[in-house]
Records
---
Amino acid sequence: MFPDSVPQRIAVLGAGSWGTTFAKVLADAGRDVVLWARRESVAESIRDRRENEQYLPGVLLPAGVEADTDFDRALDGADAVALAVPSQSLRENMGVFRDSLPPDVPLISLAKGVEIGTGLRMSEVIARVGHLDPARIVVLSGPNLAVEIAAGRPTATALACTDHDRAVAVQHACATPYFRPFTITDVVGAEIAGTGKNVIALACGISDGLGLGLNTTASLITRGLHEVTRLGEALGAVPATFAGLSGLGDLVATCSSPLSRNRTLGRRLAEGLGLDAALAAGGGQVAEGVVSCRSVRDLAHRHRVDMPITEAVYRVCYQHLPPTAMIDFMMDQPHSPE
Ligand SMILES: NC(=O)C1=CN([C@@H]2O[C@H](COP(=O)(O)OP(=O)(O)OC[C@H]3O[C@@H](n4cnc5c(N)ncnc54)[C@H](O)[C@@H]3O)[C@@H](O)[C@H]2O)C=CC1
Ligand SMILES: O=C(CO)COP(=O)(O)O
């Protein structure tokens, strides 16, 4: 089956490593893509040298990816729009894009995070700021380290939308021999899983930086999955989602890979860098777990969900808890059934 509604011209708003990689996936899937970049230097590098030298160096972008700094032009004639700016700037950007978004087209949400202050998930920010039907929003989330995908290494992902047909249309639009999307309907689960795993990856990076072993990593992944699932359930998510690609899949990839910016940041904290220095060492690329440990902790408090790993990461990032004491904090939690 190849539905008539498969988008052909797609605007990707945000030319960081994930927006650029997803633009390549779409072009490799046969779509016409316009990638909106904030900065002319990024658009120029893509136009003139077919490479995003700042965010995805060494990757040749196909001719199907055009780059533009004018979002009105990028959105003109688009029959799907992917949003690829970091979570905490999505509100501001949606406010600017809102009036130029084509009516009725699917909006593909790529950011992983929960908004500070409001506790809103990214699809909620998009729907509220854009005054649009949540059923138009398709959340893409899974084990999707950009650099691997850009190199054509196979992976799978989940496309979550309450409107199944819309998810199927996007599934057909972005499927390639190396990128295999599955559809689900649990938007809440996909978003909470994708947000929570960055915090757990930070904890795994800290553990790794302290020279602890795979038992520690496996314990963090398993208990991390448990606490993120509990939060998801409290918010109405389907527990099975957390065993899927946007749950366990993404958690394992991010917690295990040296390519993960969140895990790398955790390592740097364990090696003695302060938060600002550790962020600066990341070259300006976003590590969402730093903000998400705050917004997820706030949500957990609001819904009375116990999240000791998230709490420990929050204390390291914002309350000067030494990384070694983070492990003690977790090991000293009251004993409980699994
Ligand atoms: N890189 C990856 O492997 C993956 C990233 N993601 C998620 O995608 C989102 C974007 O991440 P990346 O592209 O990796 O980040 P990045 O750090 O590589 O790039 C961020 C992009 O956003 C732009 N940006 C920063 N602040 C902005 C603002 N205030 N307004 C507009 N644009 C702004 C930057 O210029 C840059 O183009 C994040 O939520 C991340 O968690 C999801 C899956 C995979
Ligand atoms: O979301 C990601 C992989 O699925 C990317 O993780 P990092 O932001 O930690 O690199």
Note: The chain has two domains: 9-185, 188-331.
---
Amino acid sequence: MARIHRAAVVGAGLIGTSIALALRERGVAVALADPDPAALRLACELGAGEPLPDGPAERPADIAVIAAPPSAVPDVLRAAQDRALAHVYTDAASVKSGIVAAAERAGCDMATFVPGHPMGGSERSGPGAARADLFLGRSWALCPTGKSDPVAVAAVVELARLCGAEPVMLEAPAHDRAVALVSHAPHVASAAVAARLAGGDDTALALAGQGVRDVTRIAGGDPRLWREILAHNAAPVAGVLEEIAADLAAAAHALRSGTREHDPAAAAEAPEWDRSVVGLLERGVRGRDRIPGKHGTPRTADYAVVPVVIPDEPNALGRLFAAAGAADVNVEDVRIDHSPGLPLGVAQLFVVPEAVERLVGALSAEGWSVHA
Ligand SMILES: NC(=O)C1=CN([C@@H]2O[C@H](COP(=O)(O)OP(=O)(O)OC[C@H]3O[C@@H](n4cnc5c(N)ncnc54)[C@H](O)[C@@H]3O)[C@@H](O)[C@H]2O)C=CC1
Ligand SMILES: O=C(O)C(=O)Cc1ccc(O)cc1
């Protein structure tokens, strides 16, 4: 069984720094490299590791993680292997088939390389957005090629577990089709909704609630990174987008036919409506229900929600979580809604249904305004 004591992380952005922070928490020594000196300095200042010295490695690390943009990965891998940076190599890029093929073409040693993709992330970039718990409870796709050495595979499985993630083995083409469905096409769809807002008037935008924020959060991702991801996974993403576009076009067509009939209630009874609008909404509920929760735990929708008013003052959330902890209630998830211009917000605490009564009692006794 592999044992990771020393790691090198090349690319100290959001993902590299988050992996490094998670490893540091587990006592692993981390050396970091990044061509951007400001990113490297910040990652080191955040406690993610020490700068990796230039030149041939004195002693190879147990594992090197390449967390650079997808198109940089093959050359960075080749250079790292040429200087014997580590015994085992993996990457974090969001696409896999093209990178494996390019790594082969670049003459990389494919025995020590196990392609990977941690399925935690964020719409933010850079080490400043990094978090040690970014991968906690997430899956981590591993796509060993036929040439990957089993010892190298074991080391990358250990890396994923050290970061709190669950390794999932699959072949690179299957990976790319899967992430087209669950990550890449959703990103483009989110961007399409968000792009409508760019031309929206201020009054409309002032009415924006949580729904539109949820649907557009990922659209905030770095367009340069997403351009690369989409270019590397173009055909599978195009396939999913065509299906989404067909659903949207059918729904729009049915809605239009309703407006022509001047009788919205009657139009909503029409078979086309049932199929294209109601049918789509129902399929949407079914699709969403299939998204698993962390580590197979219930989805957020299966928890009870306890709304608590929080004053906009220092450490209000800290006090709220401490009160929940003192009542021995595990807050599984939290969402914070702020109304613009109001000095108050509402924290939605997601807890198992059995804990609601205890939590409400404890918070109310401490003077919190609870609205369960
Ligand atoms: N953003 C996300 O949520 C996720 C991203 N990924 C993948 O992780 C990788 C890194 O993405 P992020 O950390 O989000 O991007 P980022 O922009 O936060 O960080 C990328 C870092 O790589 C550095 N870099 C650029 N060229 C390099 C090179 N030739 N050698 C070494 N470092 C280089 C940049 O200076 C930057 O600090 C990408 O391949 C991406 O597809 C994977 C999972 C989630
Ligand atoms: O922001 C989120 O919730 C994400 O899921 C981000 C993300 C972006 C790219 C990936 O390859 C994997 C995950």
Note: The first helix runs from residue 14 to 25.
